[in-house]
Write a structure and sequence with these properties.
- With about 100 residues, this protein is of the alpha+beta class.
- Helix content is about 25%, strand content about 35%.
- Strands 1-2-6-3 form a four-stranded antiparallel β-sheet, with helices on both faces. The chain has a two-stranded antiparallel sheet with strand order 4-5.
- A hairpin with a 2-residue loop joins strand 4 and strand 5.
- It is elongated and about 55 Å long.
């Protein structure tokens, strides 16, 4: 990875991520080849206005689902989810409006 902005693709706003947000955990879709150290440094630099410190990063590879269109079979793209745990009392303001 060259740029830290390429590591984090987008934030995930789902029912599960909203519940985790109350516990200080935030979900992101990240580049499939990103490591935990790259994800940690990317979150800390992108949200440096909030002065967040990452305690832990959990990742999960989501395989692409097989889709059928008549007799044609295709595969949806695979992606990687990262759940980032912040220090207690810290939050990311970007997610608070969602």
């Amino acid at each position: 990875m060259k740029k830290l902005q390429d590591v984090i693709v987008r934030p995930l706003v789902t029912e599960r991520s909203t519940v985790l947000k109350e516990k200080g955990k935030y979900s992101f879709e990240v580049h499939p080849n990103a490591t935990k150290k790259e994800i940690k440094s990317a979150v800390e630099t992108i949200f440096k206005k909030e002065k967040v410190e990452v305690l832990k990063v959990n990742t999960a590879n989501i395989p692409g689902k097989i889709r059928r269109f008549g007799r044609h079979v295709s595969k949806a793209y695979r992606w990687k989810r990262a759940i980032v745990t912040l220090k207690p009392g810290q939050k990311i303001e970007f997610f608070e409006g969602a």
